[in-house]
Amino acid sequence: MQAALSGYLTIWSVIGVGWVVAHFGVLTESHRRMLSRLAFTIGSPALLFSLVSRADLSHLFSRTLVVSALAIALAGAIYLVAARLLLGRGDLPGRVIGTLSSAYTNAGNLGLPIAAYVLGDMTWMAPIILIQVGVLQPIALALLDLGAARAEGVRLTWWRYASLPVRNPITLGTVAGLAMNASGIVLPDLVWEPIEMVGQLAVPAMLLAFGISLRLDPLPGRGPHVGELALATPIKVLLHPAIAYALGAWVFHLGLPDVLAVTVIAALPTAQNIYLIAGRYHVRTLLARDAIFISTIASIPVIVAASTWLR
């Protein structure tokens, strides 16, 4: 469990740096917005391009990927239905961020060390990264773009509706990586090294921005988003992995190692880039921040218990 806990420690150390520099006034709210924008428009597209272009695409056709995809869809659907019944109609952008907070897992900077220890193979994270950044994220970004256009009173043509998913920098980076992977083209190191260097900006920038928010914004669990938070976080931490386990063990009858994999993947906390997306669109940033904060802490005993029981 040392590798998994090391991943948590690394993340919280960088978040702590953001909190400290905000506390002493070294970085302010304007710096947080700059870091978020840098990560969203430059760092994340480069990072996703480098990850997806080198991933094993054969996992796309595995039954474990089907289970993970269905678990994401069901967790998100449960959030939407429960939010409609318990919280009222709500607004489209807010529901998008709430759905992402309840179903989008941190398969990158936390998932990789956890996969290395618990699953014994970091390539388990490639399929979930691909389906999240290749399918779930483009849909969410398109809906957020649509919500922003409606709020500004802009009417979109059918062409702009259709092109929303591919006009976002994160989606473009993912699509370009998939195309590169499928084509088999190998870029020279002279090209790869700057791409990887720029991609390395993404995670530190978003973690620092997250730490600044923890210091400058209201404390976690306070504010008008508490109802949405109380709904999204238990779905992410408890219901999402339970759905993945039930589908893998009882519906698809996967082997025990595969059931362990889909359960642990689903038990990962809300991904950091949800806060990045929320900040970019100025929608439910506190909801995204608090969901990440709480689910990252709560996921530790859930993952330990699941891996111990299923192993």
Describe this structure in words.
The chain has 311 residues and is mainly α. The chain is 77% helix and 0% strand. It has 14 helices and no strands. The protein has helices at 2-23, 29-52, 63-87, 92-103, 111-119, 125-151, 158-163, 169-183, 189-199, 202-216, 226-251, 256-267, 273-281, 285-310. The model has no long low-confidence stretch (mean pLDDT 86).
Rg over CA atoms, rounded to whole Å, is 19 Å
Tell me the distance between the termini.
Answer: 13 Å
Number of helices: 14
Beta-strand fraction estimate: under 5%
User: Residue ranges: pLDDT <50 for 5 or more in a row?
Assistant: none
**Shape call:** globular
| Average pLDDT figure | 86
Structural class of the secondary elements? Answer: mainly alpha
Order of helices and strands: HHHHHHHHHHHHHH
Largest sheet: none
Give the fraction of residues assigned to helices.
over 70%
- How many strand segments? 0
